[in-house]
Every structure is written in C-alpha cells, then in structure tokens.
Amino acid sequence: MAGGGSLLTLPALLLFGLPADQANASNRLSIVSQSATGVWGFARGGKLDTRAIAPILLPTMAGSLIGALAASRVPNDVLEYVLLGTMMAMATLLLVRPRSVTAAPGEQPRWHDRRLAGMAGLFGAGLYGGFVQAGVGFILLSVLGGVLRYDLMRANALKLVCTAVFSVVALAVFIPAGQVVWLPAALLAGYTAIGSQIGVRFALRAPEGVIRWVIFAAVIGTCVAALLEA
Fold first, then answer.
1. Over 80: is that where the pLDDT of 129 sits?
2. Which of 164, 131, 195 is nearest to 39 (CA)?
3. Averaged pLDDT, 27-35
4. What are phi and psi of 73, to 5 degrees?
5. DSSP letters along the chain, please?
6. Which of 53, 73, 157, 172, CA to CA, is 20 to 30 A from 41?
7. Contact 219, 85 (CB under 8 A)
8. Domain ranges of the chain
9. Which of 195, 176, 179 is nearest to 187 (CA)?
10. Using CA atoms, how far apart are residues 155 and 108, in angstroms rounded to an integer?
C-alpha cells in the first residue's frame, strides 16, 4: 500500500539473532517477494502500465549504479537529512495539496511533454537508491505521481517493479558473499508475499484518501526511525 515495510521486517530479523549485515541482506529476499507479488496483483487489477516498465527502469538502474559507486566517497549523513526533508515535504503535500504529487484517478500520464523531467527524476531516485536504499520507494512515488502524473495506484505498481529489480541486484551481491541466512529469509519472504497480496487487494478497493493517509503514516514512521537511529 505504501512503503517502509523494512521498518518492521529488519527488527524482526534482528530478533532472530541475526547480525545487522545478515539481517540487511536476508531482508532483500522479502522485498523481492512482496514487490513481485504486488506487481502481479496490480497487473491482475489492470493497474500496471507495462509499456512504462522499460522507460522507468533504464534511468533508475543507471542512477543506482552510479549511486552505488559513489557510496564509498560521500558521507551517508549528508544525504540522509536531505532525504528526510524531501520525504516530509512530500508527505505534507500529499495531504494538503494531493494533486501536486499524484494525479487524479483516470488522468493520463504525461510522458509526451514531461519525459525529460521524468527521466531526470527517476535517475535521481535511482542515484539515491543505489547510495542508501532506505526510503527510495517514497521518492519514486513522488516522481511517478508528481512529474509523470500517475495516480497513486499506478505509481505504486511501477514503484514495486523498481524495488524488485533493486533488490535482485542487491541479492546478486549478498548471496555470493554468504550474507543471506536462508531459513529466516525464506520464512519472511513467504509471509510478506501473503501480506503484499492483502495490501494490494485493499489498495484496489480503498478510497484514494485512505491510501494517502497510509502513505503519510509510512513516511512519518520512516523519518522518525531514521532520526532515532541517527
């Protein structure tokens, strides 16, 4: 329905006794499972713009690669506070002026006149995702909705495509390094896949105003958790 689910799943893996690096790596399997099943659910509900998948993935993956390469050179703290400010601003606009960050249901995407701005925004989201990852889903939502003018449902479906691909790339690094602990990772992936289907079914039926409040709560929760951790 929103994002920020790792605020719940990472502590759960830590409670299993996993060290932080293994919890972070094992959590990516659940992100893949919930994103993939979420995409499938939105596709069945007719809310996935399949033609936009390639144009969206190209700039986000390019940005992700550069962000990952830059991660070793720029302090995370510098970017963290920029992210928190951006996310808080997006959450506030989502409640106060929702049409500034998301299109109305039925509004047509604006690829024809906003392609360059959309590509730049998606590249920036990928850059951040490759650098830090946490909260990238909210940044993707703001670009897909605010710039390219997808409604919340369709923006969420495309966001899940991106998070699934991000996590597959991450797993390609973590698995050879032996950081994925398969039993808790598989259990978490199975349960989050079930939760994802429940969330998608709710999102397909719920009024847009309810989804906005869910996203607002998820953004605030993510920001509070990041500040407490800082």
1. no
2. 164
3. 90
4. -115, -20
5. --S-THHHHHHHHHHTT--HHHHHHHHHHHHHHHHHHHHHHHHHTT---GGGHHHHHHHHHHHHHHHHHHTTTS-HHHHHHHHHHHHHHHHHHHHHSGGGTSPPTTPPP-HHHHHHHHHHHHHHHHHHHHHT-TTHHHHHHHIIIIIS---HHHHHHHHHHHHHHHHHHHHHHHTTTT---HHHHHHHHHHHHHHHHHHHHHHHHS-HHHHHHHHHHHHHHHHHHHHHH-
6. 172
7. no
8. 6-229
9. 195
10. 12
Is the pLDDT assigned to residue 133 strictly greater than 90?
no
Q: What is the mean pLDDT of residues 171-177?
A: 85
**CA 61 – CA 40 distance, rounded (Å):** 21
